[in-house]
């Protein structure tokens, strides 16, 4: 059964992505979709195992919600989709028949965690940036400029121009994005195994949607997409199957303060919990 919670342009669906997309979302109604599905690598999403019986079954499931995402996009809409490195080639081949793939983005991060010792450990996740119409889509380049680190910093002159000029000190980011992963001590951290950073969603939402437009995330997790959409004046739809994660979304989006009698509070970090004070020892 699907449940809907909403407030001021932001909707949260507790339910299955395919069911909600097919039954609750009108076709051609969404300007931007960010999809970060389970990767089929055995993560534990609050007891729900992210593992299918075979690669074929996983891909069959993915193609169903990918088709629905394509149908829900407006004619000028964009889809960003993430996948495990080993599955992205399948997504790429499948989607290029239905959309124009404009960028194959590498989200790169350093990691201090356990590292592979017998092969090269994975330090990136791929993201496809696709549009419905490659002649007519939103790309707000000026809203996502980053510092150009080469010519401008060294104050080089570009003599190839008809009037030689100094290099630009800002540029549109390339397709390798170095953004730190969300760590336990970061203010944005929530209790979820694969939370995506606010900075990643800021770039995507700023570039590929306009204020007032609708952003949808079919696998919302901690609802970072919806949170950033709200902060940037967009409307949002977030879908998530796990009630525990929906509670995070209800709190982050300020849709509810209480859920079934429980106050929705950010879980305190270990180091924030009050330390039991030892009674003082007096010797007389
Ligand atoms: C990779 S995580 C998404 C993380 C999210 N991008 C974030 O920043 O927190 C995938 C999420 O999909 C949810 N999920 C798994 N199967 C689902 C389904 N059939 N429908 C909706 N959500 C599902 C999981 O509970 C998990 O929270």
Kindly describe this structure.
The chain starts with a strand and ends in a 21-residue tail after the last strand. The model has no long low-confidence stretch (mean pLDDT 94). The longest helix is centred in the first third of the chain and has 18 residues. The protein has a nine-stranded mixed beta sheet, with helices on both faces. The chain has a single domain, classed as Vaccinia Virus protein VP39 (Rossmann fold). The protein is of the alpha/beta class and 284 residues long. Strand 14, helix 5 and strand 15 form a beta-alpha-beta unit.
Summarize the structure.
The protein is built from six helices and 17 strands. The protein has 284 residues and is an alpha/beta fold. The protein has a single domain, classed as Rossmann fold (3-Layer(aba) Sandwich).
What are the secondary-structure elements, in order, as H or E? EEHEEEHEHEEEEEEEHEHEHEE
CATH homologous superfamily label: Vaccinia Virus protein VP39
Structural class determined from secondary elements:
alpha/beta
Helix proportion of residues, in percent?
10-25%
Spans with pLDDT under 50 lasting ≥5 residues? Answer: none
Query: How many structural domains?
Result: 1
- Tell me, briefly, the overall form: globular
Descriptors:
284 residues, alpha/beta, nine-stranded mixed beta sheet, two-stranded antiparallel ribbon, 6 helices
Helix/strand layout:
Elements: E1 3-7, E2 10-14, H1 17-24, E3 30-35, E4 44-45, E5 48-49, H2 55-72, E6 73-82, H3 88-95, E7 100-108, E8 124-131, E9 146-147, E10 157-158, E11 165-166, E12 170-171, E13 176-178, H4 198-208, E14 214-217, H5 224-231, E15 235-240, H6 243-252, E16 258-259, E17 262-263
Parallel strand pairs: 2-15, 3-6, 3-14, 7-13, 14-15
Antiparallel strand pairs: 1-2, 4-5, 6-8, 7-8, 9-12, 10-11, 16-17
The structure holds S-adenosylmethionine (SAM).
